[in-house]
Amino acid sequence: MILSNPKQKINMRHFLNLSDWSSEDLQHLIQLAVDLKSEWRSGGNKPVLANKILAMVFQKPSLRTRVSFEVGMQHLGGHAIMIGPNEIGLGKRESIADIARVLSGYVQGIMARVFEHDHVEQLADWASVPVINGLSDASHPCQAMADLLTIYEHFGRTEGLKLAYIGDGNNVAASLVVACASFGLDFTIASPAGYELSESVLDIAHERNRNMSIELLRDPAEAVHDADIVYTDTWISMGQEEESGERIKAFEQYQVNQKLLTKAGKEAIVMHDLPAYRGKEITDDVADGPQSVIFKQAENRLHAQKAILVRLMS
Ligand code: CP
Ligand code: NVA
Predict the structure, then answer these.
(1) In terms of residue numbers, what domain contains 63?
(2) Kind plus residue range of the DSSP H or E element containing 109
(3) Whose CA is nearest to atom 2 of ligand 2?
(4) Which pLDDT does position 206 carry in this prediction?
């Protein structure tokens, strides 16, 4: 008997990058999230994931991802198991291929938060159950789905809106630009030199939607001009703590504050995936001000992820 990579045998659906899913599929996911949210609010979700278990593998800290996935599984009649960074030693105590195959014998889905994106890809290569990317250094697709749900709920549409992202061209920005391409928003990003969004991600977004406008700028004030959504994220992502000093210096002019916000559209909303480093990338008055939707956004992690869980695991 010859052992082979299980991916060759099973046409498994994973949620690793938004670009693996068509725009139409992502739009259906948001519709499902809207439906599940309204079902939950009118008395509770049907137990469509009864007896299903989700393993949650975390190589980095988390509040939203960890709690929203666990609560989401419970609302849908299933259960989640937390596996923290010191427990399984992903790729250290045991190979990723072995961990993926062992977990596949116990659970019906794996959600993983990792450093190297390749690690979540390897889990998906070897698992015979669906794998969800709960953040890697390259992308944060679950966050972007919650963001699009929030934008859709606020404006009642997504097409024709302009999202201005201020700051680091990081994992959150990488998923957002593809989400914008999938949902018909224009995307502008202002980053300091050396911290721009990668060309390969921009190519994916362009490829997906040739009609959208993507602008890479230096000046935050120019970026937020006429924006419907002003978005920011930390200047120092998990794993970059040693670069704190140089990053704080590089991003000094990239704070989302009241002065910058007055240059955006009057009805613009402010978004942040959280955790927020108040006084750094965003000021208290903006984060807690009338234009901020950051806590609705955080809540929508739950509803957007339920749609992903139902689509992959039921
Ligand atoms: N936004 C987000 O992913 O938050 P956590 O790191 O707390 O999961
Ligand atoms: N860019 C941040 C997002 C945290 C949710 C990080 O990777 O740490």
Answers:
(1) 18-139+301-313
(2) strand 109-113
(3) 237
(4) 96
